[in-house]
Inverse folding.
């Protein structure tokens, strides 16, 4: 049972803190069963004060007491964290990495204890409990480990299971995707301002419209094209707006963003 586990989150920046918040607020884990590690002392003090969990800058003081270790640092810091962990981690502990462009095999090559490894890719919407997180089995991981990771990340939104070879594509689509959507919302809001709306109103209209449209896709399970056609009456305003989007090659631009972001993720992995 997950509520019997002791979980360590290494790196409590935006994503690490969001995961801690979701685990506690959704009653998945009590605060006494979550430990954190962060190199910034002031960050540790903030996390301790806000969530009532133990936080230390010393990995050795924390990880040996944990069943599951979640690495939530930036990709450039993964190697140093893995090297610090290597002395202490054992095959009985589950290691979950959240870093983009860092393979489970890379971690396994550093961690001498050869623990089971799960690779996960959440996104920034974890901050409001609406992350889209993909998880994949790495070396030594079982279906049981995968189920545990799924339960952990379900506290912060929706979870899908993929193969690790799909993670570059996942990173490009759902990992980077919120930034694409924010840009679209901003552009829609700009359009609203251009035609006479107050900025705050235009932003709310654009954001809620995006949220509602996304919910319809998820809940109806209809193809987006069919839902688009439901809104588009012959000779109407929506048809005119869609024509402008097609003139601007919005499909090609968005597809290109995902393709190039995936290529960048592949390059990060190779470097």
């Amino acid at each position: 049972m997950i509520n019997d586990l002791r979980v360590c989150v290494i790196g409590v920046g935006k994503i690490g803190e969001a995961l801690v918040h979701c685990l506690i607020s959704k009653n998945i884990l009590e605060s006494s069963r979550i430990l954190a590690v962060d190199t910034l002392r002031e960050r540790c003090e903030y996390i301790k004060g806000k969530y009532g969990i133990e936080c230390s800058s010393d990995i050795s003081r924390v990880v040996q007491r944990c069943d599951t270790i979640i690495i939530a640092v930036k990709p450039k810091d993964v190697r140093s964290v893995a090297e610090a962990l290597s002395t202490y981690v054992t095959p009985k502990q589950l290691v979950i990495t959240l870093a983009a462009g860092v393979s489970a095999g890379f971690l396994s090559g550093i961690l001498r204890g050869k623990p089971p490894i799960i690779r996960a890719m959440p996104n920034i919407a974890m901050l409001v409990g609406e992350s889209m997180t993909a998880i994949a089995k790495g070396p030594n991981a079982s279906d049981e480990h995968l189920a545990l990771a799924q339960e952990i990340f379900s506290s912060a939104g929706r979870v899908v299971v993929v193969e690790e070879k799909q993670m570059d594509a996942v990173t490009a689509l759902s990992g980077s995707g919120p930034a694409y959507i924010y840009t679209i919302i901003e552009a829609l809001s700009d359009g609203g301002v251009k035609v006479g709306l107050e900025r705050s109103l235009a932003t709310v209209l654009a954001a809620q419209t995006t949220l509602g449209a996304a919910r319809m896709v998820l809940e109806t399970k209809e193809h987006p094209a069919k839902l688009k056609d439901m809104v588009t009456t012959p000779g109407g305003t929506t048809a005119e707006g869609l024509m402008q989007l097609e003139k601007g090659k919005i499909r090609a631009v968005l597809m290109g963003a995902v393709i190039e972001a995936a290529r960048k993720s592949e390059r990060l992995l190779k470097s």
In short: The longest strand covers residues 131-137. The longest helix spans residues 199-220. The chain has two domains: 2-167, 177-270. Strands lie at 7-10, 34-37, 54-56, 68-71, 94-97, 117-121, 131-137, 157-161.
